[in-house]
Write a structure and sequence with these properties.
The chain is globular. Helix content is 0%, strand content 23%. The strands form two sheets. Strands 1-3-5 form a three-stranded parallel beta sheet, with no helix packed on it.
Length: 78
């Protein structure tokens, strides 16, 4: 997720889907707020939500499904 490290606020939505190369969410480390929904789905090799530790607010819904290698969501404590 190169190039997203300065992103702190999204006014619409975030959808991270169907990316078999994705193993973590590093690069989103500074993201704090998403006004709309946040969806993470069908990323077959995603093993960690590392990178979302600063996320505190999602205005609509948060959807997480069909990420077969993801064993833990403990990063989402905020």
């Amino acid at each position: 997720m190169v190039g997203l490290s300065n992103l702190t606020h999204v006014t619409k939505f975030v959808s991270i889907t169907s990316n078999s190369s994705l193993t973590n969410l590093n690069g989103l480390n500074n993201l704090k707020t998403v006004d709309g929904y946040f969806k993470i789905a069908s990323n077959g090799n995603l093993t960690s939500l590392t990178g979302l530790s600063s996320l505190t607010t999602v205005g609509d819904y948060f959807q997480l499904y069909n990420n077969a290698q993801l064993a833990s969501v403990t990063t989402l404590t905020n």
